[in-house]
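S1.2 Input.
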Amino acid sequence: MIRIDGSVTPKELLPRVTRLFALSAKKLDLLQRSWNPRKGTPVFTVNGVYTSRGWTEWTQGFQFGSAILQFDATGDAALLEIGRTATVKLMATHVSHVGVHDHGFNNISTYGNLLRLLREGRMQASAWEQAFYELALKVSGAIQAARWTDLGNGEGYIYSFNGPHSLFADTVRSLRVLAVAHQLGHMLMGEKDRRISLLERLIIHADTTSRYNVYFGEGRDAYDVRGRVAHESIFNLNDGSYRCPSSQQGFSPFSTWTRGLAWILCGFAEQLEFLATVPEGDYPKGKKKAEVLSAFLNTAEAVADFYLDETPTDGIPYWDTGAPGLARMGEYLAKPANPFNAYEPVDSSAALIAAQGLLRLGAYLKGKGKREQGRRYIQAGLTVVQNVFAEPYLSTDEKHQGLILHSVYHRPNGWDAIPSGKKIPCGESTMWGDYHARELALIVMRMAEGKAVPHFYLTPQQ
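S1.3 Output.
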């Protein structure tokens, strides 16, 4: 169980944040000078050097988005130009990609961050450039929403790259692009000019995910523990019936892949922030704002509590709560995670994603008058930051292209590099882990400065 530091503050973490961004600048320069776009998208490091490996090009937005976030934090205009130019030159195929569930990852990280900076007055752009970013996000949101399986009875989901029968936990974080496209006044046009609300699909997808991918301790099966997450849910498309949990990247359908849980935690927390800004009158027919917010909050709290209970004392989890080697590690939840153990890898990227979810969930609850409950989640998030932004997780070797170490991609497939003399993956970085470290660091920086934290959705112009 995480040992929450109730006294640590964002201001006390500023030196760690400053150090992280100083190292980040050097890592970005290393990657920029060495990466050949013809190799595809950098995914994870092997011996400290980024390489490509994966099913889809889902990490390119994190590559260019990292440069944009570095500008956001430090004002380095050269990095803004790198992110800006690469977005225009290389991200168009991600906007029109009909084969993936990853639009929120790729396009909010690039077009979305650029539009946010423009609206905040942090960068200068012509009206046409703003219109370009907005059009990209509108199209991306509609294409993502079109990847739809209708289960009937008000249920449905954006299906994964496995096919129409497959609902992934990860996809909750792609809902961001539906939200922004909706805010921009866009919708999906169907047969006979049917107008399909992107906000409605966002809410239905999240509801379906919550019902089938998240457990609430209500006796659903023999392994129903409140807050546990199944990576994938499988449906029979002949009649729309739910068949079973599954897992592409976790150990089993009945254990919790911790990065999948982190996507749910962060995704539901940030959607709570967004949905609270949506006027009651904009909610789809049959969806009452208070009921939607209550359901989203119930899901976010359940997975947050599971994370706090099933994570080692430093708040950095092993890659799956049911990984078989954990049984050989004694009371592993009663001490800090050990990335150098001989049995199971930790996943620092899950910690980075979950920490952002904890901070956002805590702030939301405090804003609703639940101060003690909110403070607990905020302090838990800051505790994770305190530990993951320091050695042995912070990559201080300036020749290593990664920023945060001990992140893993796909343990079951054996894709992650195992150092010589070791039995499990360790010492390497992932593109999404490094991006979310920068995103998390920027949030903590803004908290320390007493400024509004960045949101994926559009806020009123200054």
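S1.4 Remarks. The longest strand covers residues 241-246.
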